Amino acid sequence: MNGKQALAFVEQHGVVLQAARGPVPNLAEAVVGGPIRGSWWGHPKGHEIFQAADVVSESADVLVCKLVAGKVTYVHRRLWPALVKLALRSPREWPHEHLAKIWEEHTDTGAHRSCRTAFPDWVPQEVMQAAEALSWTEAERILQPWMALSQAAAGKTPAARKAATKKPASKKPAAPKPARKRPTG
Predict the structure, then answer these.
(1) pTM for the full predicted model
(2) CA 18 to chain centre
(3) What is the pLDDT of residue 179?
(4) What is the number of helices (H) and of strands (E) in the chain?
């Protein structure tokens, strides 16, 4: 998979994990064509994965954040207006710290330094305007496939929520325990 194909993969799927397993596809497994055992760095196609991730991360059409389970996530630009709309309305469901734009820089010493721009500071003006023009219903419709996947993975589907809030069947109260006697002497 070359860089152009990697970008097309992210555009097609909308939300993609870099390498972690989760409720959405991941780029590393797409590059190698199947599951990876262990770290992708040690995979025979590790260099190809790195190149694909680098191209995707550098694209102006991809937000790199930690949206899915706190893991490095790529979100294609076509979803940004809906994501911004819902995140501004419901920060509990769309935690802003998971929507910070992240990247790594190389320092003069050769070390890597993690950097971030807080949400919504990274949001381009035209995306903010497009988000304002969307109705909440339309934003939810656009993001529904990803919301359903991430909710199912987190046990937040309507059925899971109902099961979590269901009261257990009432039981007869247990007989009181006899008082403990203290040793004397």
Answers:
(1) 0.78
(2) 10
(3) 53
(4) 7, 5
Question: Which residues of 27-152 form beta strands (DSSP E)?
Answer: 62-65, 73-76, 101-106, 112-117
Is residue 18 within 8 Å of residue 6, measured between CB atoms? Answer: no
**97-135 in b/e burial notation, b at 16+ Cβ within 10 A?**
ebbbbbeeeeeeeeeeeeeeeebeebbeeebbeebeebe
Q: Report helix, strand or coil for 101.
A: strand
Alpha carbons 126 and 22: distance in angstroms, whole number: 31
**Per-residue pLDDT at 183 exceeds 80:** no
Rounded to whole angstroms, how far apart are CA atoms 97 and 123?
A: 14
Residues 50 and 2: beta-carbon distance below 8 Å: no
Residues 84-102 have a mean pLDDT of: 91
How many CB atoms neighbour CB 165 within 10 A? 7
- Measured CA to CA, the distance from residue 65 to residue 46 in angstroms comes to 21
pLDDT greater than 50 at residue 172: no
Amino acid letter, 126? E
- Residue 32 CA to residue 40 CA, distance in Å, equals 10
